[in-house]
Model the fold of this input.
Amino acid sequence: MKPVLNLLSADEKEALHERSLRVLSTTGVKVETGRGRACLARYGAQVGGKNHVVRLPREVVERALQSVPRRFSLGARRTGRDLPMNTGGCTLLMSGEGTRAIDRVTGEYRDSTFDDWLAATRLADALDEIGVYWCIVTATDRKGTMRDYVDYLYSLFANFSKHVQDVVASTDHAVWLKEALQIVFGSTNEIRQKKPLSLVLCPESPLRIDARYTEAYLELAGYGLPVAVVPMPLMGATAPASLASTLLMANCEILATLTLVQAAEEGVPVIYAPVSALMDPRTGCVKSGAVEHGLISAASTEMARYYGLAAQTSGLGTAAFTPGIQSSYQAAMTASLAVMARPDILEGAGLLGSSMILSLEKMMIDVEIFNACLHAGKGIPTGGDRWMEDLIDEKGPGGHFLDHPSTLEALRAGVWQMSGLERSWSFEEWDDGGRETLLGRSRRQVDRILASHRSLPLGDEIDGEFQRLKKKACE
Done:
């Protein structure tokens, strides 16, 4: 008894693929980078005209799809934390990139800072469920100089020891990133083998591949770094007012970007990673936490599996501005639908207010929700002696099973999902204990982790090399 969510029939997945090929070959996609258009032209795409629209014939897209590896691992600096893709596991990824934070001392809402980013990154490093980094908030108190970027890279690798997924914002950043990766992980060949970093490319809906971020990616060609293709079509705004059409838009944008990536460096791993969303027709804002988001996230994972690609999808979002009832039920609703489709990575932990406001307490609650979703995904095992008919006969009517060894064995075997935050107390115990809330326990756990956690050190030699790199960036 194992639950698996299947929204799309085989015929519907085939139809979505065929419609995508038609859009890409007739409507085309606007590619605003000359370097990218040149790669696509060499690959067989139809490039020409003043508006930079590129049309992708069926055979070009299918060649690109065939060249993407189906099995690979996302590497990590910490031993034992590499993440094999397409093998049935699922890990959690922070949300990004917020611009505000709830001050943990005053409770005020303010612009996010480097210290907020550092606290969130350290907390994520300590939580086993979070296997992949995203830049969760912007450090608005930094000026954005190249020295700031090098210091960000040093602080990132010094405080997060699992897999890193990140945006590279310019070709200049790409140059410094190469040197940082070599300092931490070794030669180009060692980086190709380890894959400690995956890059994010976000095609802009509808049907547009930008110049700035794409050229930054192309600057890193030769390193074999996996690429997460993350289109963000907004139903009713940058995609038509239809869930099916929003799926189609995201699929077209992923296939187009995947083709460009393979044209630049054939054989690079690609992660199918849309963050499709809905417009709230009453306000024009993102309808974050909507149940439809969970549906479209699950269907996106099904399309990734249709192509045999690694799947990254989104959930845990909320429109609420404070952790509480709304943020929790919206996060649980979208995450449960998304996880039941069996992605490799679930993105979305830690942000409120349509992914704009950092809350470390929400990150802890999101981890609880994620664990519950994974536990539910195991279903109800029925093999072996799990029916326990002999034990029922032994105890008979009126008996109990509390003192039987099988109960303790089941506890140790993980039959119960043991929450780190929930408690099944009596009213008297809760009342005598100060009536602590889930949010209060979450805050207490965050404080404990931040006070005690120490990330895997880089080592004196790497620290010294980064100091040299910072000095070079200043000059």
Q: What stands out?
A: The domain at 66-377 is CATH 3.20.20.480 (TIM Barrel). The radius of gyration is 24 Å.
